[in-house]
Structures are given as C-alpha cells and as structure tokens.
Amino acid sequence: KHGPKDGVLTRRLCAPCAAVRFSLMRNIMRQYFSLLASPIKYKTLFLQFVKRDISGRYKGSLIGIAWAFITPLLTLGVYTFVFAGIFKMRWPGDLASGNGAYALRLFGGLVVFNLFSEVVSRASSLIVEQPNLVKKVVFPLELLGHISIGVSLFHFLVGSGMLFVCTIFFESFHYSALLFPLVILPLIPLLLGLTWILSAIGVYFRDLGQALVLLVNLLLFLSPVFYSTSTLSPELQFWIGLNPLTQPIENMRNVLFAGLMPDLMSWFGSLFLGLAVAIAGAWMFTKTRDGFADVL
To answer: Which residues contact 98 (CB under 8 A, 6 or more apart)?
Structure first.
C-alpha cells in the first residue's frame, strides 16, 4: 500500500518536470514571437527591401510610382460613374447619402480586400522567387513575409488616404474614423501567418499559386465588398461571418461612414484568430525552412 509519503515524493518528482515543460514552452513561444518582431530586429534591411520592391514594381514606366496614386483614383471614378451614374444604386441604410454612397462603400470594401488579395496571391511564390537568398546568403527568410505585407500596406495606405479624402469631401467626417487603423490591425498577423504557411507550401507544391488565384476570386464574392451583411438572411450572415474579411470590412464601414464604434467582440475574435494563425505560420515555417535549399 502507498502511504502519504509516496504522494509527496511523486509531487516532488513531477515538479521539476513541470518546470522543464514550462521553460521549454516559454522558449518556443519566445522564438515564434521573435519572428513576428523581425522588422524591428532587422529594421534597416526591412526598409531597404520594401523600398526596393515598391520602386521595382513601377520601374521603367513613364510616370513611375505615380501609378500607385492614379490607379485607386481611377478605380473610384469608374465605380462612381457606373454604380452611381448609370445604375443609380444606393447602399442599404444610407438612402439619404446619395448615389455616390454606394461607390464609396464599395471602394472601401475593395481597399481592405485588395490588401488581403495582394498578400495572399504573392505568398506561394515568395520563397521560390528568391533562390539566391535561400542558397547563397545568410538571410532571415521569415523577413520576406514582413516585406510582402509592407509593400501591400503601402498601396493600402494610398487607397485608404483617397477613401478618407473622398468621404470627407462628399459626405462628412466622423471622429470614429480615427479608429480605422485599429479596425485593420487584426488583419496584419493573419496575413503574416498565411504568408508563412503558403510560402512554405509553395516551395514544395508549385501548383498552389494557380489554386490561390481561383480561391481569391471566389472569396471576393463571399466577402461583403459589393453588399452589406445586413441585407442577408440570418443563415447567410452566419456563414459569411466565418470569413475573416467580414468583420474588418463591416467595422471599417461602421467607423468611417456610420460614425459607430467597432464591434469589440468581433474585433477581439479577429485579433485572436490572427495571432493564432501567425503562431501556426511561424511554427510551420521554422519546421520546413531547412528543406528550402534542397528543393530550390
């Protein structure tokens, strides 16, 4: 029979084991979070590559980086002409705002969606297009995900700036619009995690890029870009709500056009999901990166 001393002895033996497990878990989480903070650790390198990618995208064109400002402006003009001038469409719940309200809310949804689309569409070829960095140079490969998001954020900021100006000029300014960056914040870790996952898979499965093009195009219509979730049935609202882009787009419209505070429950849910995906992406990237050089 076991006496009381046996239980005490067992607890004493298990205590060091628990401490080792806790220390191991803490070191692993510290490693993953260090990947999230790579732009701070490699600040100069990060800024150089972002600047290089932005300038390289418009290299050789007559007006250069001015295209980054002209493209969203022309897009907004076309949407205003088509949906406001021709179809006379009005956004649900904003019937008094005029026909241009539909074009602005549609453009706002596209600004958020294009951030997601640009990052995800490039993710599968992110490592494949940089074989020299993988093979010959000691380079922090996890930084490529941050660089991709940094370039996409530049275009996002340009589109958002034009959206702000047009909203103030054609409608009115709400102080809740100052929360716009906070609304978009949960998307950043989500995109970073997806970039790490998709770029790692893309090294081993080159067909992933073609599949992502189809999925992104499908996701455009499964996101509340051309419509509001308030017009959907409760069943469809539930399924569309599972889309990680739904809450950022809806909260963006609430703070920018309706003067409402973002839904905190959905915001924290999106942030938790984004951090979970980022940690999962960091784990997968660190587990697979050693084989990149052999495949490439």
So the answer is: 84, 90, 170
CB 213 within 8 A of CB 129: no
Q: Where are the alpha helices (DSSP H) in 185-260?
A: 187-204, 208-222, 234-241, 246-253
CA 278, 284, 285, 287 dihedral sign is positive
pLDDT (0 to 100) of residue 192: 94
Distance in angstroms (rounded) separating the CA atoms of residues 86 and 293: 54
What's the half-sphere exposure (Cβ side, CA atoms, 13 Å) at 177?
Answer: 16
Indicate if the pLDDT at residue 112 is higher than 80: yes
Tokens coding 133: 């960095």
Check pLDDT > 90 for residue 70. no
Task: Report d(CA 292, CA 296) in Å as an integer.
Answer: 6
pLDDT of residue 9: 47
Question: What is d(CA 177, CA 88) in angstroms, rounded to the nearest whole number?
Answer: 26
> Which of 108, 128, 123 has the alpha carbon at shortest distance from 216?
123
- Which structure tokens are listed for 275? 């951090």
The 10s digit of each residue's pLDDT in 140-155 is: 888 999 999 999 999 9
Distance in angstroms (rounded) separating the CA atoms of residues 141 and 135: 11
Alpha-carbon 256 to chain mean position: 19
CB 54 within 8 A of CB 63: no
